[in-house]
């Protein structure tokens, strides 16, 4: 069988380990051949692809990003299933392995229903898929954010400042929750929870009273009391205009104006998603890539891989389209007990 | 309630996060006080303890080791339950939280049966406890080993050498399995699996043939074909004498003599267990410490915490005494597909 | 002798190693005692100080920040030399070791002239002092910036984007120059050099043409063609108003609008100055602290330590007040040969 | 001009940055072409070489090792200057850039005298060349050793053990000196200094008395009192036989037997020389590669590059053959003040 791989959506540490795991296992165990569609669904509709051989994937599991590129292209703007089928026929590709988030997997589901043999590998750096215990990339993002906060803290301590770190997470606060717990943050602000300004000020002042330089973690999708959530995660001001500056900056302003404590914010941004994946993510991603090939070998079209406990299992592609896995109240309250 | 904490056995990244999680949560949520017995069970029998307060545990979750010290002391060589009860009475300690591996937890079980209120937190850097999906410390050890192999590989590539890395794992090969998968090793040798010299040589030569510098990971407890396993994991030679040098060196000699490929071995040793814990281990250990306090608050004596999927649950202390969780055949075969 | 240590200005990796080196060497070799003034010159004027003993400085050379705190306080707003002399008398302090940048060292010079025995240790994370070949903290900042760019690059490659990284450097572009060279940037923009928009666009397009995702490093003090430099390093727009957003964002907008290449900017911010110092900075800072004690022991008041080649030497405090050491044309042209 | 590059001797972080710096600068500034001889002088005598283009050297400065391979081949065992000249003629190579240690540079000198246009780049991970203030690779080795000791220390502290770390350095103790200073070691043992067992025991016991877990760093070439130095750095026992085990193990045995303190040794080995170079080493190596091309362009045959202060200068190849730069008494005594 010749399998075409698509990586789509934002890049995520571990994508290359998925590709390597799939190619090595598929070639050695089953004799499959692999093509990599370049630049996400764009490559799949245009037939822009490169062969993926043992040689191509050599040593790539420790590289960030994806060697076949990615994009947010919607295939229905480029001919949809017809174009994809044409590409596959032209390139002799029999099936597609789609690696991506809920958007990508929805596409994969629809293409599957249109008759294209399709298996999926879930990918979300935010770890917000109900279908799987963990997604690769999340552990790397949490590590980078934690390391950054370990650094910010020493500056806060030296100057007696409050430090605010803004991390990824538009709809789910998992990165903020885990990195904040790991770094010993005094407050964690996430989209799922409407923390009031008074609560926040209380935690910050309590930490300050005990002689600490307060550390606050904010997920980009957090909405401040009195602001209206906007798609961009930036909120609207009282006149309904998008706020300038990120949520981290606005939280810092609020803290400084309410407490008088000098406060600085740092937006971690793109450094959270690139570079060398952690060992955890390399192992998980490699196993996902290998198991997705097993699904293809078994003809389990329309399914995808997932982690349950320590096992990689098969679930339906539709499982990826469930409500996102947001931070539960019990997990938030658990973390909150360490605030202040 | 006043709770005494014991950390016992080999040190492990995350121990301090357990202590911090327990103290902060216990003090803030329930008003408990905490004492730390110094140097494992030694401190518990002698009554050698320090108060653990919010101030004491400040900022410690990112420190390796354990601030209260550890040892391999057997309490029955120092008075057993009687001595422990005396210490507790003298210090006003009502219950003990024991953090340790199967040996420590067996001690905890026995003390519990002797009437001492006891809760447990499992600790094994080898991740070989059936009662829990994961133990803290393991992720840090795998990270360090993977990072070391990423480094060894570039030396191997530059000189056309085979590189052998010996990692921890006397009875279970999880560290070798995960770090080997993460680093893309061409062979992984673990105690659970009697790999023959021919198999090993086959993998090494196959990698060499494809132009790679072969990378081999060996768990310290691996037993070479023709050698007899010894308690020390060092094996016996043909005369029944313990072999000099570690298993890594002997594997390197075998490879060099059988294939003619210049081979170097590196024993990672103690660097695998010390230093800054990964974010993953800090979060898991913090949650374990907090949940163990919940067990104490509920009076669930004789129980311990464990990870199941993404939830921290309660299991019986006896569950820690099951057969160790060794690498299953299916997990090994999964990894083996990437060898050679 | 009793020596008071002041750390003043922005925090910088290595400050604690200076303190430790001074205290251990001063106490063991000469029997000196040490006090740490808290929060920079504020502590020196108010007499707010803690004893610094062998115990206090234990293990601190690997900690970021400064254990005695820092501030940008100007002592002449708090009583000047009179207040400092009073503090010293009250605390029995005979001499001051001032650790700081050009501002701090100018203060030290003036206090020295007012009769206060004073030795200096130069500190600037920007490495822009002519008096010394290197300052501690710079190597750590360059390491962190380089690591961040290694990460950004994989995201750029995966999406075919241009990535812009804004690093520290208001007046001197050394951090940008070194991290950009280390990370293989396609353009480096520094305050010392008025790069035109056409030059920049040329480098970016040349990299893109060769199939690279362009990586651009901008020092915060860089001034774009057509903008007017402002003290804040933020520039003024055509109406003379300070520009919103950092220079990194504006450079990204220019690149995207002129080339059509999707471009993202990241402001590294405070993570560059905190956290564990590199081994290089720990060694240099330790040697500086030790040598500053030697200066005090010799009564070389009004002097400070500096690195010349591999030797720590004595220079006059006034040497720190020379023109800043900015990036020379030859060093910039050397780097520029690798652009595009 | 077509320049052939040779990397020879042990691998060293930064070799790839030398190659990239030379190729990019040589091609863009002067229109030179480059060949890489494979496997050190072996490739130069056999004419085994690959073209080095802008594409070949893309992104390699952050990779450990050398993409053209290395070896310890002596060219006079493979035809000497005659064979090298034949290779050069066959491949159209006009000059050679030799990157290596004193052995390699002696070869380069001799080939230069035999009429082969030759420039040199000094390389020694031990930093023991008088001709240059610093060599690339050293900073990376010191970083890795320091990081390892930071880890070992937490294990020592938790168990109350003395930890011994054996680092590289057969003839010069720079790596031990710098990593030991950075990590706050209580004793540093180097080949240049015959520390007595009594001195060592004194430092260890003094640290223990103050409640510290002693940390001892030993360079591999250190010779214990009463042992005879051997070429292998392993020493001879009382019967003149090479001692089994490394010097680290023997030092650990001595400490344990003399002080009764439980002691563990770790041999850092090959992990010190591989993997991602530090930013410092990447910058220095890039500058060395670029400047060596300038030497070739100017026809400065028989010369090599060196660092003096912050400048890259030209020195004679013979300067590399001076007495090695060993640790001076003053630098050792400076470090020694922090022992115990």
Largest sheet of chain A: 7 strands, mixed
Mean pLDDT of chain A: 94
Over all CA atoms, what is the radius of gyration of chain A? Answer: 22 Å
Point out poorly predicted stretches of chain A.
none
Please give the oligomerization state of what you see: homotetramer
What fraction of the residues of chain A are assigned to beta strands by DSSP?
Answer: 15-25%
Query: Helical proportion of chain A?
Result: 25-40%
Secondary-structure-based class of chain A equals alpha/beta
**Strand line-up across the major sheet of chain A:** 3-2-1-4-5-10-11
Number of strands of chain A: 11
Largest interface: A-B, 43 and 43 residues
Describe the structure.
The structure is a homotetramer of 340-residue chains. Chain A is of the alpha/beta class and 340 residues long. A 7-stranded mixed β-sheet of chain A has the order 3-2-1-4-5-10-11, sandwiched between helices. In chain A, strands 7-8-6-9 form a 4-stranded parallel β-sheet, sandwiched between helices. The longest helix of chain A has 22 residues, at 138-159. In chain A, strand 7 (187-189), helix 7 and strand 8 (215-219) form a beta-alpha-beta unit. In chain A, 39% of the residues lie in helices and 17% in strands. The relative contact order of chain A is 0.17. The model of chain A has no long low-confidence stretch (mean pLDDT 94). Chain A contains 10 helices and 11 strands. The first copy, chain A, has helices spanning 15-30, 41-46, 80-91, 102-113, 138-159, 174-183, 197-209, 247-259, 279-297, 329-336; strands at residues 2-7, 33-37, 49-52, 95-100, 118-122, 162-167, 187-189, 215-219, 263-267, 303-308, 311-316. The A-B interface holds A 20-21, 24-25, 28-29, 54, 58-59, 61-62, 133-134, 139, 142-143, 145-147, 150, 153, 178-179, 181-184, 210, 212, 278-280, 282-283, 286-287, 290, 308-310, 334, 337-338 and B 20-21, 24-25, 28-29, 54, 58-59, 61-62, 133-134, 139, 142-143, 145-147, 150, 153, 178-179, 181-184, 210, 212, 278-280, 282-283, 286-287, 290, 308-310, 334, 337-338. Chains A, B, C, D: It holds the Pfam family PFK. Chains A, B, C, D: Residues 2-295 form the Phosphofructokinase domain. Chains A, B, C, D: It catalyses: beta-D-fructose 6-phosphate + ATP = beta-D-fructose 1,6-bisphosphate + ADP + H(+). Chains A, B, C, D: Substrate binds at residues 124-126, 161, 168-170, 220, 264, 270-273. Chains A, B, C, D: ATP binds at residues 10, 72-73, 101-104.
């Amino acid at each position: 069988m010749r399998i075409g791989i698509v990586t789509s959506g934002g890049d995520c540490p571990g994508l290359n380990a998925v590709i390597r795991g799939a190619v090595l296992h598929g070639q050695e165990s089953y004799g499959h051949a692999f093509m990599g569609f370049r630049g996400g669904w764009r490559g799949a509709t245009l037939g822009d692809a490169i062969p993926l051989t043992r040689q191509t994937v050599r040593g790539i599991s420790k590289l960030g990003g994806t060697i076949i590129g990615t994009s947010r292209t919607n295939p229905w703007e480029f001919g949809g299933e017809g174009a994809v089928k044409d590409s596959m026929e032209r390139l002799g590709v029999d099936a597609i392995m789609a690696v991506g988030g809920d958007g990508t997997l929805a596409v994969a589901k629809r293409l599957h229903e249109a008759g294209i043999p399709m298996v999926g590998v879930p990918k979300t750096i935010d770890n917000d898929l109900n279908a799987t215990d963990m997604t690769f990339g999340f552990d790397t993002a949490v590590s980078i954010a934690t390391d950054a906060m370990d650094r910010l803290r020493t500056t806060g301590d030296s100057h007696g400042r409050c430090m605010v770190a803004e991390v990824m997470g538009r709809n789910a606060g998992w990165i903020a929750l885990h990195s904040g717990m790991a770094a010993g943050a005094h407050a964690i602000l996430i989209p799922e929870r409407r923390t009031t300004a008074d609560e926040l000020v209380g935690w910050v002042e309590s930490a300050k009273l005990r002689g600490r330089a307060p550390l606050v973690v904010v997920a980009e999708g957090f909405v401040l009391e009195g602001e209206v959530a906007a798609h961009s995660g930036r909120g609207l001001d009282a006149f309904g205009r998008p706020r300038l500056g990120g949520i981290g900056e606005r939280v810092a302003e609020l803290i400084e104006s309410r407490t008088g404590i000098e406060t600085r914010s740092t937006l971690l941004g793109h450094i959270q998603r690139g570079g060398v994946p952690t060992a955890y993510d390399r192992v998980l991603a490699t196993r996902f890539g290998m198991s997705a090939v097993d699904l293809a070998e078994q003809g389990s079209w329309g399914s995808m891989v997932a982690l349950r406990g320590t096992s990689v299992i098969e679930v339906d592609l539709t499982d990826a389209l469930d409500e996102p896995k947001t931070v539960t109240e019990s997990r938030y309250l658990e973390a909150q007990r360490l605030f202040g």
